[in-house]
Write a structure and sequence with these properties.
The protein has about 300 residues and is an alpha+beta fold. It has 11 helices and 9 strands. A hairpin with a 2-residue loop joins strand 6 and strand 7. The two termini are about 35 Å apart.
Length: about 300
Amino acid sequence: MTTTFKKNSSMTEPLPLNQSNYYSHDTDFQYMSKSVFQSFEKCEAETLAELKGEWDPKKFKKKSSGPDPLIFGNFIHSYFQGEEAHAEFLKEKDTIEEVYCHNSKGEPISKLKKDYSEDGFAYSLINKMKLNNRFNFFYKPRDPENKEVIVTGQIGGYWWKGKIDSLNLEDRYFCDLKTTKDIHAANWIKQGDRNVKTNFVEAYGYYMQMAIYRELIRQTFDIDCIPIMFVVSKQQPIPEVANLIFNEDDPQNPDVKYLMDDALKTAEELQPHYWKVLMGEEKPKRCGKCDYCRYTNNNPEFILPTQIEV
């Protein structure tokens, strides 16, 4: 099934967003988001095919002994969003439960998978966060409605969307909750022709996300907020927590402002091409290495051995 779309521009009023349509591919053709932008950076061809409904990456996903990262993260997010949100998430918990027996009528009886049980993997991270006093104080907004807040605005003449985990307009800050494999692990990113070692914040594009969210909040509410990120590692049996503040006004840490400004500049420079790809005005570039490229590249051109990319 191919997704229909309309052009994104400052002259076009996009479809209003709500909790039901925020993650739909229809709105992805009207609003750019950090996740879609980052996906384009990895492979334009795969991203476009997925957004148009022509490619399902889950179909070829490798089986893993651990939980699905997206579902795992959503489980933890919904828990801290509140009892009602967590209960709503658990209503659609087919992927986190398993049938363990049948009753006398032959009806299946299910239970949560081990990772999501009260003594399982997910709750080890949840319980660790509960011990973090700064998380408990800052993450809970005064108004329960200020969780999972949708914000929109224009960056460089194009519409963007974001969803804020926890927003405190009164005290001018917003919070984002992240899980990561290891807070201190080295990550490698490509800068020009070189691979550069960095931490997970830069490697996963979180400087860009925080800069964009701050700008969208400013446009939506006319308030400038400081980004705060609460992180818990997936290390077992002992997770680690980190409380990160993206304070651009701290004279002792000028790199934060530089990295956020540079990330926003990157988004502005690359997005015109990405939008032309989305609108069918330019062909998407293939990375040549992802699942989609391997699956669709069945008759490659001849190349020299020295042309193999690494």
